[in-house]
Amino acid sequence: MTARTRTRRPRHASARRAAAPALVLLTVGCGLVAPADETTPPVAPHSPVLTVGMPNTVGEEDNNPFDSGSAAQKLGYANVLYEPLAQVNLVDPAQDPTPWLASAWSWDAGYTELRVTVREGVTWSDGEPLTPDDVAFTFGLRRDEPALNPDLLPYEDVRVEGQDVVVTFGSGQYVNRTKAINTFVVPEHVWATRAAETVLDDPNLDPVGTGPYVLEEFAPDGVTLVARDDYWGGPLAVPELRYVAYPDNGALTAAYVSGEAQWGWAYIPSYESVYLAADPEHLHQFAPTGLAVDALFLNTQVPPFDDVAVRRAVNLVLDRDDISNLATSGVWPPLRSATGLPMPAGESFVSPDLADRTLAVDVEHAAAILEDAGYELVDGVLHDDEGVPVTFTLTNPAGWTDYMAELEMVGEAVARLGIVATVEGQDEAEWFDRIGTGDFQASMHWTDGGATPWDTYSSQMNGAHVRPIGTTADANFGRFQDAEADAAFLTYASSTDDAERAEALATIQRVYVEQVPAIPLLGRPTAAQYSTRAYTGFPSAEDPYASPQPTSPAASMILTRLAPGPVE
Q1: Which phi and psi angles does 490 have, rounded to 5°?
Q2: Contact 513/354 with Cβ under 8 angstroms?
Q3: Does residue 310 share a domain with residue 261?
Q4: 219-222 long-range Cβ contacts below 8 angstroms, 24+ apart
Q5: Comparing C-alpha atoms, which of 69, 76, 79, 105 is closest to residue 554?
Q6: Is 167 helix (H, G, I), strand (E, B) or coil?
Q7: Which of 141, 175, 197 marks a domain boundary?
Q8: Are residue 193 and residue 216 in the same domain, yes or no?
Q9: Does residue 397 contact residue 431 with C-beta atoms inside 8 Å?
Q10: Is residue 6 situated within a structural domain?
Q11: Where is region (Disordered) located (predicted)?
């Protein structure tokens, strides 16, 4: 099958294109041009292409920003076509968001009404102006079609008042306040012709956005975007972006080292010797941690994890330092606080009553907890009070090598208590189905981050997510329920009083520590690799202004901050 290409068009124009063949990308070379001389301004036409690589499989052309499975989202270029109202820094949840398509916004005291002032002077890539009607239309789409509202925000009324858009919600949105303003905006004059229920299935072959780049070509060997010359944010250093899907982490790593790819994310075991050492001056990995974590989710509705004694004991025998170093090469940092929050992002949220409680290995204490609960060792195997051996199965997709390595280490750790744990690799689709329906015993999973620990805890233990076993749950896969914690979740989400919210969070954390609904192991970074051979200005430990991943909504902001580097 031959690739079709597009004729290069003006960077502020739009053109209709035929459907593309399937995108099956391997490694694609990308040569760097010579640097401009001293008399040449460091502007885009004299700078090299920036190749973005991801180890994600994509298929037919699909530029739909609403579809998490589209090529645009999996490779990340959706985030340079479409932009949010505000840029949220997931690396520093306490930082105020950066105004973007919204020049200002405000909430009422109860966080039930959001007023957004739409930035003036912004144009869509087809030359039409961005208007408050576009923003209102986008919020209305999310309200009217649940499939377009993955955060389940309870949108109610949406209205335009001059340059402002006013959105009301059915309940207080304190915990979702950054999600609401991180919403990307689509043009009403393009999307209004599509029925809301069909939007998610539309391949959006002629994308029109406010972002700094426009789609130039979708072909089997790469997706090409070119910089707009009329972008509202000003001139761009990078004239052209090329997005490439690599077959696996190893192929992308090799592309980094050779200079073929300059930005992306791949899990690289022993990354310091395999990746950084290849060019210490120019190759970088930045892996900041916000409030998201990786945890061992436990099915609290079935043995043995229906017994809190077993959950507490297992929590006490896991060496998080070893798991971090051996399974993730130290990229995922070990959690220290008993509250399960990563530091330093979580420091201001830790209850004073738990400030000194840490996650540490204590096999003797774990054994004592089990003995006090009626368990006993028989020929080295732990039995419950009915004489049944304590066993469980640890499951994750077989191809997720870091998680599988972590499960092996969990199995080795619980053997010290006489517990027999079996590690089982599953097909990815099967695993997603089984963990959602509660057909599992223990499995590694992640939580989201955000401006508060709401998502961190809610996804592990909020009873509002509980569904009967056999029915798919969207979070709290272990089906943990506690009336006191559930009431605290409601208070934390809806209260307008800071002290009341702090008390509710302290209650959630106390239940989390005492009842162990899941076992927190590692902070979950938003990691990326990048090269400064051609461009500088990426987020770094010295300047952590955004999540560094090219698939994050901050990609458009990152590209506005890049400057030409010493091309060699």
Answers
A1: -65, -45
A2: yes
A3: no
A4: 219/3, 219/4, 219/5, 219/20, 219/23, 220/1, 220/3, 220/21, 220/22, 220/23, 220/24, 220/25, 221/3, 221/25, 221/28, 222/25, 222/28, 222/51
A5: 79
A6: strand
A7: 197
A8: no
A9: yes
A10: no
A11: 539-568
Per-residue pLDDT of the chain (568 residues; tens, 9 = 90+): 333 323 233 333 333 233 333 333 333 333 322 223 333 233 334 468 999 999 877 788 999 999 988 999 999 999 999 999 999 998 887 789 999 999 999 999 999 999 999 999 999 999 999 999 999 999 999 999 988 998 889 999 999 999 999 999 998 899 999 999 999 999 999 999 998 889 999 999 999 999 999 999 998 778 999 999 999 999 999 999 999 999 888 999 999 999 999 999 998 989 999 999 999 999 999 999 999 999 999 999 999 999 999 999 999 999 999 999 999 999 999 999 999 999 989 999 999 999 999 999 999 999 999 999 999 999 999 999 999 999 999 999 988 888 999 999 999 999 999 999 999 999 988 999 999 999 999 999 999 888 899 999 999 999 999 999 999 998 999 999 999 999 999 999 888 889 999 999 999 999 999 999 999 999 999 999 999 999 999 999 999 999 999 999 999 999 999 999 875 5
User: Rounded to the nearest 10 degrees, how much is the dihedral formed by the CA atoms of 142, 148, 154, 160?
Assistant: -10
d(CA 417, CA 100): 54
- Locate 124 and state its tokens: 């869509």
252 and 331 together in one domain: no
Write out the H or E segment, with its range, that includes residue 130: none
The rounded distance, in Å, linking the Cα atoms of 253 and 54 is 10
Helix (H) or strand (E) holding 72: helix 71-75
The answer, as to whether pTM is greater than 0.90, is no
CB contact at 8 A, 15 and 216: no
Report cis status (omega within 30 of 0) of the bond before 544.
no
Query: Over the range 339-354, which residues count as b (16 or more CB within 10 Å of their CB) and which as e?
Result: bbbbeebbeebbbeeb
Half-sphere exposure of 178 (CA within 13 A, CB side): 20
Q: Domain of 99: which CATH number?
A: 3.90.76.10
103 and 239 belong to one structural domain = no
Q: Are residues 253 and 174 in the same domain?
A: no
Residue pair 155/179 in contact (Cβ under 8 Å)? The answer is no
Q: Are residues 107 and 132 in the same domain?
A: yes
Strands 240-245 and 263-264: unpaired
Which domain covers residue 378, as residue numbers? 289-525
Is 396 inside any structural domain?
A: yes
Nearest alpha-carbon partner for 185 in 229, 243, 234, 119? 119
CATH of the domain at 361: 3.10.105.10
Residue 416 shares a structural domain with residue 496:
yes
| Angstrom distance (rounded) from CA 254 to CA 400 | 20
